[in-house]
Write a structure and sequence with these properties.
heterotrimer, A mainly alpha (275), B alpha+beta (347), C mainly alpha (285), A: 275 residues, mainly alpha, MetI-like fold, C: 285 residues
Chain lengths: 275, 347, 285
């Protein structure tokens, strides 16, 4: 996810106006901007009692996390996981097929395919769901399948874009070289295209997973309260007052797994790059 | 507008690796010096330091005698043409050339007028309105050159600007640089790995190897009077015969050849360029060799001979012959130096 | 594949490839928009016979306009902040070798955080006697940020999440070339400020424009932050639509659909405007 950074060149370094103190201040401001909203989440998740105007909790406890150890929360976590996986498993291969088609079709139909794949970005998710809900009800689609279908369509622009940009820099001649070295079509696909597109596949899968894992509004409107996921629990906790510990603990339960996955995906790659 | 550029004891290390070691070099105003070296010899780093894009670990860069330490790039008044054209993709051709004038606060109109003069100099005024992305490689590099010159630089630094062009375009660029020198007479430092390019463009060549300057001198001197075997090799010399100098005479299988005055007696190599030896009838030459190889270079042929004699161990001599030589493999031929005296080096 | 694009055999297979991706999108979008239009006109009622009526569109236009204006205000403000802060992050990352790497990693790490969580976090930070007010020592003059009249908490949430997105897009598009071009600009006499304004900014312009359109359309149609962090009234488009949609009064359905369709239309208009601006930007390159 993190773009390849060239080592900052000397004149780029001097490109930030102001001297070293100014740059230090800017750096701290940016780090503060990024991290500050997460500090109260971390503190509240381990706070026992924390009354204003105290800057830090007066006592610490794990009550927020222990409130998570319920059957409901476990079920919600399982549904979130299934939803993320379902959306990713659907949207990743479809995004790949769409990207390949957009690349190989002649200019005009290729452009049309591209536009169709990007179209869900233009429709607000709540509007998409409201309209389609009637049809899903009439066809008596189970809520889970309906949510996966709508979210997979929402995630398609991201997965297709990931493959599209990977294919744009993917040099077709690698496959021609492989063929000229005696590889069959399937060998070429397995030993050349697959490894070269592995990174894009991982990124696409990750993004699509996130769409399902973190969704709130689609689950709310289609599930109609029947489909309980972690974000649904969070939504009800955050909209009521006095639930800070639970809100914070739930937030961490939703944020941490994808971050661990992201780190696992990016760290080995950037380490290799540095070598 | 031309200035004198001087590097004084310049070193640059990246971590443990030292890319430049105590480099000292002076470029007189309006002269063109080529820094010749293989890739990784530190020559581009030297230019980046001169331009203020990199800082030396120690040593100084002086322009007209004043130290540039701490002077930022944009105030140095040196222009650098990079290996890649690096035209700004958001500007068209004329605005790229007008960039430096705009930076000094001139109006768009005045900057463009100024830029047009330089586009004419590189024969590209027709393409002024074209987008920077729609040019051929040669055109891009011309625009880059015009853009650098439009800055009225005190010194022009060229970092292998022609290396990605094909040989015909490169020859066009050489004559363009000559026009520019005739018209504007800037001081030029050219970095290249191509000894032909260095010889064509520069007044003098500085040979850089592993971060050190091995020799700096006029083009002919570098070719015919190299300081070391390494310089001879870098400038394409193929012949170095081991032997001994006694009383100003080098003795080897090639016979007795008077060498430069001042050579101390002792073991030494006779350096003789392949272009400076002739094939003659046996008996007329100073040595005799048998042909062991023929290699065509197109209009020229390299003839490899094995030379044996009484005065030392046998050695290989290569002779550059114009056209098709009238010799066959295994034939015994006479060899004769073009000049009566030779050049010896000890290492 | 090896026959290259354009040959008839490849085209045939590509159409086959395109179908599984294109059909679900067209089906969901088509069904959704058609059903929304029909429902907004009373032609697809939940119970009872269809009955054409423009009541949902004409009945309460004042409220619909207010909701649209409010949504435009929130989306526009959030977009401006996201783009400015995102560019600042990108410029800092490119300029500073070590600290920039840290900022880049932190910024990218916020991308997977869902908006509902971002909204919860901003709530804990900015609410009345929230973390920020406590940090500042509970000043009397601390403004009402959550649920206040200017929607500051909701806008902050969008700016926080989307600035990281803008930075990522900008970095992805210029990181490769910008260092060398800044070197070239420096040797041509451009000062630090000039390099930012005359080289880095124009280079980033296309990606800034694209990400601005995406952020605008996204924030326009996003529900979580405005619902959690905004006042109960007036309502922006998504909140109004979802409230009406969930209302026990089935007559509210057509109004919900009309509200949803208005946000679709505003989003489409924003995209069209964005494409026109982008054409301009690309044209002058």
């Amino acid at each position: 996810m993190i773009p390849t950074l060239q080592p900052a060149s000397a004149s780029m370094r001097r490109t930030l106006p102001g001297g070293t103190p100014m740059r230090m201040v800017l750096g701290l401001l940016l780090v503060g901007w990024i991290l500050l909203p997460l500090v109260p989440v971390l503190l509240w998740s381990v706070a026992g009692s924390w009354f204003a105007p105290a800057v830090l909790p007066s006592s610490y406890s794990l009550q927020g996390f222990s409130a998570l150890a319920t059957a409901d929360a476990a079920r919600a976590a399982a549904s979130s996981l299934c939803l993320g996986a379902g959306v990713a498993v659907t949207a990743t291969p479809l995004g790949y097929l769409g990207a390949i088609a957009a690349r190989e079709l002649p200019a005009l139909p290729g452009r049309v395919v591209e536009l169709v794949l990007l179209a869900p970005l233009a429709i607000p998710p709540f509007a998409l769901v409201m309209g389609v809900n009637v049809a899903l009800l009439r066809l008596s689609t189970p809520p889970f399948a309906g949510v996966v279908l709508v979210l997979a369509v929402t995630a398609l622009p991201y997965t297709a874009f990931m493959f599209r940009s990977a294919l744009a820099t993917y040099d077709h001649r690698f496959e021609e070289v492989a063929r000229s070295l005696g590889a069959t079509t399937s060998q070429t696909a397995r030993h050349v295209r697959l490894p070269l597109l592995a990174g894009a596949t991982a990124r696409a899968f990750f993004l699509a997973f996130l769409v399902g894992w973190g969704d709130y509004i689609t689950t709310l409107l289609i599930g109609g309260g029947q489909l309980l996921t972690l974000p649904m629990l969070l939504g009800s906790a955050a909209s009521a007052t006095g639930n800070e510990q639970l809100t914070a603990a739930l937030s961490l339960a939703i944020i941490v797994p994808p971050l661990v996955l992201l780190a696992a995906l990016t760290l080995p790659a950037s380490r290799n790059r540095r070598k | 507008m031309s200035s004198r550029l001087e590097f004084r004891g310049l070193s640059r290390a990246f971590g443990q690796a030292e890319v430049l070691h105590e480099v000292s070099l002076t470029v007189e105003p309006s002269r063109c010096v080529a820094l010749l070296g293989a890739s990784g010899s530190g020559k581009s780093t030297l230019l980046r330091i001169a331009a203020g894009l990199d800082d030396p670990s120690s040593g100084q860069v002086l322009v007209d005698g004043s130290d540039l330490d701490g002077v930022p790039s944009e105030e140095r008044g040196l222009a650098l043409v990079f290996q890649k054209p690096l035209l700004f993709p958001h500007l068209n051709v004329v605005d790229n050339v007008a960039f430096s004038a705009r930076m000094t606060g001139q109006s768009r109109k005045a900057a463009r007028r100024h830029a047009m003069a330089y586009l004419e100099l590189v024969h590209l005024s027709d393409l002024a309105r074209r987008s920077a992305g729609c040019l051929s490689g040669g055109q891009e590099q011309r625009v880059a050159l015009a853009r650098a010159l439009a800055r009225n630089p005190r010194i022009l630094l060229l970092d292998e600007p022609f290396s990605s062009l094909d040989s015909r375009l490169r020859d066009d660029m050489y004559s363009l640089v000559e026009d520019i020198r005739a018209e504007l007479a800037p001081t030029i430092v050219l970095v290249t790995h191509d000894r032909r390019e260095a010889s064509i463009l520069a007044d003098s060549i500085a040979v850089l190897d592993e971060g050190r300057i091995l020799q700096h001198g006029p083009v002919a001197q570098l070719h015919y009077q190299p300081a070391t075997l390494a310089v001879n090799r870098i400038l394409g010399g193929l012949n170095a015969l081991s032997g001994r100098v006694t009383g100003g005479i080098h003795q080897s299988v090639f016979g007795r050849v008077p060498v430069q005055p001042g050579m101390v007696d002792g073991p030494a190599f006779l350096v003789m360029r392949q272009e400076a030896i002739r094939i003659v009838v046996t008996g007329e030459g100073t040595a005799v060799g048998s042909v062991t190889g023929l290699k065509s270079l197109g209009a020229h042929t390299l003839v490899r001979t094995e030379v044996t004699g009484d005065h030392g161990p046998s050695g290989t001599l290569t002779i550059d012959v114009a056209g098709e030589p009238d010799v066959t493999m295994g034939q015994v031929v006479g060899l004769k130096p073009v000049n009566d005296s030779g050049w010896a080096v000890t290492r | 594949m090896s026959r290259g694009p354009g040959s008839p055999a490849t085209t045939g297979r590509s159409v086959l490839f395109a179908l599984p991706a294109v059909l679900p999108v067209l089906a969901v979008l088509g069904v959704s928009l058609t059903a929304a239009v029909l429902q907004s006109l009373g032609l697809m009622p939940f119970i009872g016979p269809p009955d054409l009526s423009f009541e949902a569109w004409t009945g309460n236009t004042g409220e619909l306009f207010r909701a649209t204006g409010l949504s435009l205000y929130i989306a526009a403000t959030a977009t401006v902040f996201s783009v400015c802060i995102g560019f600042l992050i990108a410029a800092y990352v490119l300029a500073m070798p070590r600290m920039g790497r840290i900022v880049a990693a932190l910024s990218a790490a916020t991308i997977p955080i869902p908006h509902v969580i971002g909204a919860g976090a901003i709530g804990l930070l900015l609410s009345d006697s929230g973390f920020l007010e406590r940090l500042l020592g509970m000043p009397d003059a601390f403004p009402v940020l959550v649920g206040g009249p200017w929607w500051i908490a909701a806008i902050t949430e969008y700016a926080w999440k989307e600035s990281a997105f803008v930075a990522l897009v900008v970095l992805g598009s210029i990181a490769r070339s910008v260092g060398e071009l800044c070197d070239a600009a420096a040797t041509l006499g451009a000062t630090a400020t000039q390099r930012i304004l005359r080289v880095v900014l124009p280079l980033a312009m296309p990606s800034l424009a694209v990400s601005a359109v995406i952020v605008f359309v996204y924030t326009l149609g996003s529900y979580e932050a405005v619902w959690l962090l905004g006042p109960t009234s007036p309502e922006p488009l998504p909140v109004r639509a979802v409230r009406l949609f969930g209302s026990v009064d089935l007559a509210a359905r057509p109004q919900a659909m009309a509200t949803a369709l208005v946000s679709v239309a505003v989003g489409a208009a924003a995209i069209l405007a964005g494409i026109l601006v982008l054409r301009r930007v690309r044209g002058f390159r």
